[in-house]
Amino acid sequence: MPYVDRQNRICGFLDIEEIENSGKFLRRYFILDTQQESLVWFMDNPQNLPVGADCVGSLKLTYISKVSDATKLRPKAEFCFVINAGMRKFFLQANDQQDLVDWVNALNKATKITVPKLNDGHQSSENQRSLPDVVGTRKQASYKTEIIGGVPIVTHTQHEGSDSADRAEREAMHRSHSQLPYFLGRPAQDHTVIKSGYCVKQGAVMRNWKRRYFLLEENAMSYFKSDLEKEPLRMIPLKEVHKVQECKQSDIMMRDNLFEVVTSSRTFYIQADSPEEMHSWIKAISGAIVAQRGPGRSAASRLKSDSEKL
């Protein structure tokens, strides 16, 4: 679901058909900024990208005439809606029906007080100059501005080769992974999968943030480099978890949708893609712990009980 970040912008993941009529939808992180009058999209949440990372594309709100459900136009694309900007149509896929409705309403509301207009040369250059104000201070990059039906569309013409590995990993997030029980690339498991999906985790040593694939099972939560990996980077036994809750230091860390998993040896800081996903993870992990230990038993009391038996 789209959510409002600390800068009062509407944000969230969507799939977009960047090349018109290609039928290929790519996972992108969208930011609807009414102050800058722009809709921009990135490879991932900018908080998880290198400082100064470039956006993939942008669109001025003044050129959007209408946003609507596109189910009939693209029957094979689930939860699809379309942004009409001059003669160009941008088709996007939401994560579910409610996500679709929320984005359509937000975009229509943001463009309600604007008037679609044709572009001239002066406006085109102005649009290109204003782009850095939308995404902050960034490295130099090559852009191209195409005038399609009187609408300026700004896109990249080159990317740094060193980012290819990370980009390939992000491209693997085709749909909302948290909605899926498991991926076909992973072998069948003996344990029941309670929840799975991508989140961003803070490292223990470097304190950097990386996107990882999390898997919650009956007795443990594991995280992998990607959903295609067979061996986890780490497994956290649920019997060692003291508590899981919304992070009280989220303001200090400047991270939205942050929760923490506290164990006897370490506190894991994990960022979900939306407030709904954050609460869903907290509920799922807490439920798995209760199911394993029984109501009202903490990790400390369980360890004490086990030691007494010995």
UniProtKB/TrEMBL annotation:
GO molecular function: lipid binding
Protein name (Swiss-Prot/TrEMBL): Pleckstrin homology domain-containing family A member 1-like
Main location as per UniProt: membrane
Organism: Gouania willdenowi (Blunt-snouted clingfish)
InterPro entries xref list: PH-like_dom_sf, PH_domain, PI-Interact_SigTrans_Reg
CDD domains named among the record's database cross-references: PH1_TAPP1_2 (cd13270), PH2_TAPP1_2 (cd13271)
Organism lineage string: Eukaryota, Metazoa, Chordata, Craniata, Vertebrata
Subcellular location: Cell membrane; Cytoplasm; Nucleus
Recorded superkingdom: Eukaryota
A Pfam match: PH
